[in-house]
Every structure is written in C-alpha cells, then in structure tokens.
Amino acid sequence: MKNAAMVLAATVFSMGSAFAQNTFPTEYPAEAKPVAGSEISNRLTGKVFTVKSATSGDWRMEFDKRGYAFVDTDSGYRDNGPWRIEGEKWCANMGKTGDNCAELYAAGETLYYKRAKNGEVVSMTMR
C-alpha cells in the first residue's frame, strides 16, 4: 500500500511538471531567417499585422509612418508608443509595457519576433 501511494504521488508530480512546461514556441521556425536592420523599416513601416500568440490570442499591430506602433486586442487591451530600429532589432517604447527590443525573423511573408514578456515567439502576418 505504501509503495502504491509513492507511485501515485510520483505520477501526479510528473504530470504537474509536464503541465508547468512552456506550451508556446520559444525558438524561431527553422525556415525563418533574421531580417537585417537595414531591411526592418521596409518590412514594418506603414503596415498593419495580425499577431498570433499561443498565450494571448490574436491582436492587431500597426507601425505607422510617423514612427508610432499601436496594439489592439480582442479583449480590449490597447497600447501605443514610438518605435525605432537599433542595430539589428526593432524596438518600441509602449506606454504600458515599456521599452523593449526584439530581432525580427522572416519566412516568406510571415514575420516573427520573441516577446520580452515571456520569451514566446509570435508570428505576424500582414492584414
């Protein structure tokens, strides 16, 4: 009986550990290649994207020609702030989430970046 209880406890613990692991991608897709800093502006400026996240659903992200980025989610969350390019990264200083930078990767027309919040790699497709 004692052995059965230990086996049950070990099984429950391992199941809990499995559920605690990341359930979202933290690595860029193998086919995605880094976008050079000199090309980032061409890929983002004046465009509106649908961002797909495993942890936060989908949201709209716009990079306007005046240098501002806007985020709107279906749940009503909104944020905005100036965006810029620093070396090989795009950066945004959003009012609520602060100043963050990320590399931009591309596979065809789909872009990818890693969220500073949790390390999740999200995809961006033009609307």
Automatic annotation (TrEMBL):
<feature type="signal peptide">
    <location>
        <begin position="1"/>
        <end position="20"/>
    </location>
</feature>
<keyword id="KW-0732">Signal</keyword>
<protein>
    <recommendedName>
        <fullName>DUF995 domain-containing protein</fullName>
    </recommendedName>
</protein>
